[in-house]
Hints:
This protein starts with a helix and ends in a 13-residue tail after the last helix. It has one domain (about 1-80). The chain has three helices and no strands. It is mostly helical.
Amino acid sequence: MANNILKDRRLWLITIVVFILLLTFFDRNNFLERGKLKARINELETQKAYYLEKIEQDSTVIQRLKDNDYLEQYAREHYLMRREGDEVFIIE
């Protein structure tokens, strides 16, 4: 009887070890792949937040560009445009 209990324990132990190995290394959705996917998701979430912030900034600039005075100021600052008779000094 004691021999049967040891065989049952060994069988359970082997089964659990095989199951853990399958989940860790050999399964399509194993723990290693899940870790990589989670890291990728975090990276993409960071990029998403960056681009949403960028969209917000660009939307603000677009709204402000509808005003002709700001449009002229923006063109002068970013594209070095000038009025007739103005002098442009570029300082870097």
